[in-house]
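Re: [help] complex structure
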Amino acid sequence: MLKKVEEFILSRPLARLSTVTPAGLPHSIPICFALSGLDTIYTPIDSKPKTSSKKTLTRINNIVNNDEVVVLFDRYSEDWNELGYVMVRGKASIVQNQRENLGAATLLKKRYRQYREQNYLPEDPTVIEVKVYDYTSWGNLRCK
Amino acid sequence: MLKKVEEFILSRPLARLSTVTPAGLPHSIPICFALSGLDTIYTPIDSKPKTSSKKTLTRINNIVNNDEVVVLFDRYSEDWNELGYVMVRGKASIVQNQRENLGAATLLKKRYRQYREQNYLPEDPTVIEVKVYDYTSWGNLRCK
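Output below.
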């Protein structure tokens, strides 16, 4: 990933994770995330209340069935010369290694005050890892 | 769609359109949009430069192959009590009727100064119509 792409991604507080359901329908939700190196995105199942009380969240179920995901980072501005986005393609899985999981939680806490100071991240959270293999960028990615 | 869901959607300057490629991969991009009534979302192929010079845009190609789409409307805030989103499921198609197309362009111009005052919308734009059949909402949708 180019340096300016990485900078743009890190400047975004939020991303959107898109997956495909077993029936072939799209699914998309806003996510908090952290970058590790240039090709790994972590996003946790945090303690915000969930829409569903189902045991397995849709995003997890989708990933287990089809690991191809998209993570979208974008910027809106009233000045349309400032518009830009990066659409990342990757393979998603659930982090199983406890050490990696701890590392991901640390990165997430570093990025989000709310994870550090409030009770939004469980001790040992489930973390989705996205291994980036490709991306498309558009528009103005310059960060001030 | 409930009134408060509609208000939340209209308060968002941008949405994200997720589709599925013929190979079953997710695809997602930021979009400008307008609402018509409670169950129709319009988004134009506008004159912003495109990533690809291919004759058919990925989103169009995907929709022709699989009309199931998701449109995501979300709000981020430093105060996580303000977080919220609406994920809309719908069937997408290209508006063919010229009168409807003109109506969609008028709605888009009403919402976006940039379409009214700058050269971002062609005279007779291609417009994607999403007929909403379901939605999921989460978090705080209150608009001040």
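The CA atoms of residues 79 and 111 of chain B lie 27 Å apart.
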